[in-house]
Specification:
The chain has two helices and eight strands; from the N terminus they run βαββββαβββ. It has 134 residues and is of the alpha/beta class. The chain folds into two domains: 71 residues, Signal recognition particle alu RNA binding heterodimer, srp9/1, CATH 3.30.720; 62 residues, 2,3-Dihydroxybiphenyl 1,2-Dioxygenase, domain 1 (Roll). The strands form two sheets. The protein has a four-stranded mixed beta sheet, with helices on one face. It has a four-stranded mixed beta sheet with strand order 5-8-7-6, with helices on one face. The longest helix has 12 residues. The two termini are 32 Å apart.
Length: 134
């Protein structure tokens, strides 16, 4: 991409300036940050009252959470006139049942509507849909 400094993977990741990430909004960002950190087994890199980020330990991608003063969780499946999902995270797993159980233990909810046999749609504690799949 133009305007980015891509020094390549041989450069120390903390000295690179070509990071990219996904940012989720939530009314209670710390709770959501801890949910994703525990679910993905990745440490929190930065945390404040306004949010924080999960550190995957390699590469330059991150998952962040930030406070939203006004937040309307999306509905799944979409309904006319209601807040629709704009994007979602897909996470590949080897044992779908175990992964779903773990996510539920951490506060996720299994969505009522499930579109495929090898995919489970869940909602994180702030209501963001995400998929676990094999």
């Amino acid at each position: 991409m133009r305007g980015r400094d891509d020094r390549g993977p041989e450069t120390d990741r903390w000295k690179r300036s070509n990071w990219w990430g996904v940012v989720l909004e939530a009314p209670e960002p710390q709770a959501l940050l801890h949910f994703w950190s525990e679910l993905l087994d990745a440490p929190i890199h930065h945390e404040s009252e306004e949010g924080g980020a999960v550190d995957f330990g390699e590469g330059v991608a991150y998952l962040a959470v930030q406070r939203a003063e006004v937040y309307e969780p999306p509905v799944w499946p979409a309904e006319p006139g209601r807040q629709q999902m704009q994007s979602h995270l897909d996470i590949e797993v080897s044992d779908l049942s175990a992964a779903v159980a773990h996510a539920v233990e951490l506060g996720a909810t299994v969505a009522e509507f499930q579109p495929q046999v090898n995919v489970r749609v869940l909602l994180d504690p702030a209501g963001h849909p995400f998929c676990l799949y094999t």
